[in-house]
Specification:
The protein is α+β, with helices and mostly antiparallel strands and about 200 residues long. Helix content is about 35%, strand content about 25%. The strands form 3 sheets. A 4-stranded mixed sheet has the order 4-5-1-9. It has a 3-stranded antiparallel sheet with strand order 6-8-7. Strand 2 and strand 3 (about 85) form a beta hairpin. The relative contact order is 0.20.
């Protein structure tokens, strides 16, 4: 608890690119992610490949450390829309990455997370401004509007955007998290770093 609020922890890691690491840990991720990473490497999109790899490894770290799941229990599937989910498990998760930060939120309730490196150029469509302008009054940066909107959409939220999205800055990045529990359960979110070494400690090569 944090005062009168409970806390939703959003885990993140910062990384440096290393192609050998991608190849070394490729068998640790799900089949569909493995295929995606190989496609990215073939097209020389090494940063995207590394983001994809670490996103799922971070998720598994959280499930093992926080939810006390065994590695063998973690079964990640993909629905008809291409969205990953945990099979036979009532736990929701969402992953986002930008440049060299990867973050993951895990909760029993649906949530959406989004991160953008500050000063990253993004094309903001009219409907995004329409959804967010009442909350931001168009005073926020492009990154603030972009992450606000995408966390809301990814969280499949029904409530008003200004009531269930929270936002923070961390080390040159803007992070937005959408969860209806911010309102219904009076939650707030906090960022917690997972070091690179800790991230890989449960991996069985």
């Amino acid at each position: 608890m944090y005062g009168k609020y409970s806390v939703l922890i959003i885990y993140y890691t910062n990384f440096k690119e290393n192609k050998e690491d991608i190849l070394k840990y490729l068998n640790y991720v799900s089949i569909y992610k493995r295929k995606r990473i190989k496609q990215l490497l073939k097209t020389a999109r090494r940063l995207s490949a590394y983001q994809t790899l670490l996103g799922e490894i971070l998720l598994k770290y959280i499930l093992i450390e926080k939810y006390k799941m065994h590695y063998e229990e973690i079964d990640i599937k993909v629905d008809a829309n291409g969205k990953p989910f945990l099979n036979n498990c009532e736990i929701n998760f969402n992953i986002s990455h930008s440049e060299h930060m990867v973050l993951c939120g895990v909760d029993k309730s649906p949530l959406g997370v989004d991160v953008e490196k500050i000063e990253t150029t993004k094309l903001i469509h009219a409907e995004i401004f329409s959804a967010c302008e009442a909350y931001l009054k168009l005073e926020g940066s492009v990154e603030k509007v972009y992450t606000l909107y995408h966390s809301y959409v990814k969280g499949n939220c029904d409530m008003e955007i200004n009531r269930i999205v929270q936002q923070q800055k961390k080390g040159g990045y803007v992070i937005s998290v959408a969860s209806e529990t911010f309102l219904t359960e009076k939650k707030i979110f906090q960022m917690q770093e997972v070091t690179y070494n800790a991230l890989f400690k449960n991996i069985r090569l």
